[in-house]
User: Fold these one by one.
Assistant:
Number 1:
Amino acid sequence: MDLAIFILMILDLRIEKLVQGGEGMARLPDGRVCFVQGALPGELCTVELLQNKKDFTRGRVVKVIEKSPDRAQPKCPLYGKCGGCSLQHLESDKQALYSERVERENFKRLAHVELPENFVIHTGPAWGYRNRARVVIATSKEGKVRYGFRMQKSNGIVSFENCPVLTPALNDFLKSNASKIYEEFVRSLPVNRKKPFELDVNLFDNGNGKVSYYYKGMPASDFEKKAVSIVEMAGKRIQSDASVFFQSNLQLLPELVNAVQNAVDEGLDNGEASDAWLIDLFSGVGFFATILKDRFKKITTVERDEGCLKHANVNLSAENVSAPAEDWLAENVVDIPATLIVDPPRTGLPPSALDAIVKSSVNRLIYVSCDPVTLARDFAKFRDAGFELKRAEGFAFYPQTPHLEMMFVLSR
Ligand SMILES: C[S@@+](CC[C@H](N)C(=O)[O-])C[C@H]1O[C@@H](n2cnc3c(N)ncnc32)[C@H](O)[C@@H]1O
């Protein structure tokens, strides 16, 4: 087919499997792969091709001719418009099983490793789980207030009244407070400043009756009362605020915490890691280090976002460093088999950080990841440097979406 004259093409395709990112995968008659948004394995779908590349194509379902028994009616009226919860067409109680298959294949393909037989995905509530969100509060010229999520591509806003994955506390808070927050923001502007019609706001539900919020330009005198909050986890009080990173599924988080604690204890018990030093890299407000602080003689936390430091200093008395992890690793010699936890953003470990860990005396690494693709990439490098995969666990922190949290334990 001449790519230049490709305008519109509709064809019937049998979906082979689900792939990373949640799309169904099929093959075109010419052998190229087609990634189909909204399709499930086994289904026969009429697909409209939207993207036509030399090596692959992309399409969307126009009609499902033969349905999977696992197909569900999307619960949210904004499915397909908001861009947020693209897996709602798959039964909630089947999502972890499909994710497990996707990840087993992902790790085989990208890292040439079989995930262990006992690899499990821990699950929690399918809806009403998300305790952290960024929303836009917008007003019309007439002053009518609405709120929604910002669209990734167009920068437009998808308005909602009730988002079914947000916690009930966040939905209630928005209904009662969106107008007040916008008015408060307008009052804080200098008199002669033209008021914008859109305000990006971070919201955080601490799971214990308090919703905190933050917007750029919030008066410093309001910050403590409105943005800061405390989460109770594993018997510890952890201070944070709505402007910085915090885990976004508090209901399932105890299972990840438990897995990390067990992994740490196992390393201390079997002698692979020492209680002389815990290093928590990409530490946010010192989340894991705070929970583990009683087990170690010395603790270092390293986090790039300066806004986290004041909380880390409240949460634990340790060497809390505000710096990129790769810079800290370049300047500090880790010459004992310290216990090391890394929890990088989606991009995974910066290559220089990974190299420094390999060259250090660390023999056991607990790697928490929110992106299995970069985890697979980094794992392959650790494996080539002599580390073995000891344990792998998954956590369905983001039901209705294709995203997955994982924890790997590596040792050498
Ligand atoms: C997935 S979060 C984990 C935070 C923390 N472990 C927790 O559980 O709350 C990743 C953190 O890494 C921080 N970060 C991103 N790049 C970094 C870098 N190069 N060095 C240090 N921290 C970084 C982000 O600001 C964010 O707080």
Note: Residues 245-247, 282-284, 287-288, 302-305, 324-326, 343-345, 350, 370 surround S-adenosylmethionine (CB under 6 Å).
Number 2:
Amino acid sequence: MVGTGKKTPPPSPICPAMTDLFFWRSTPLAAMTDSQWESLCDGCGKCCLNKLEDEDTGDIHYTRVACQLLDLKTCRCTDYANRKTRVPDCLDLRELAADDFNWLPTTCAYRLLTEQKDLPDWHHLKTGRPGLVHKANCSVRGRAIHESAIDPDELEEHIIQWANP
Ligand code: SF4
Ligand code: SF4
């Protein structure tokens, strides 16, 4: 094939659009806009599972029992705007200190960035494909049940271990 003689210029290393595209590598969590902050969430739903804390060791144990407002298929909150009113113990991560993120799953974008790590390769901000979190087996889809399905006193029986914590 004969070329046209036109060449695409190489991307500028200081291209603002590219910088914005990978904003999480250059913008500290505390300095992010609301939309940048929200876009980091991969929708795994893991933080919406009930957890138990070992009183002796302080270790956090995840259960497969999800908050009643979590959509078990999409793994998203069904009333995110009113979540704090409807579920008073729902935590707003933005109100917490970064030191308090150690209870989040190791795949959580907020925890990863706090630990100076990059987002996973399947993350939608890298791939443009929000569904990959499920294909990577990193969400609760197909693995969680609602609180109404169990006796609250039996929560301990539903402790789980993640293949991808
Ligand atoms: S664990 Fe992190 S990434 Fe997953 S849903 Fe919760 S906030 Fe979003
Ligand atoms: S209220 Fe929504 S965001 Fe909060 S734990 Fe429940 S499902 Fe998750």
Note: Residues 1-16 have pLDDT under 50 and may be disordered.
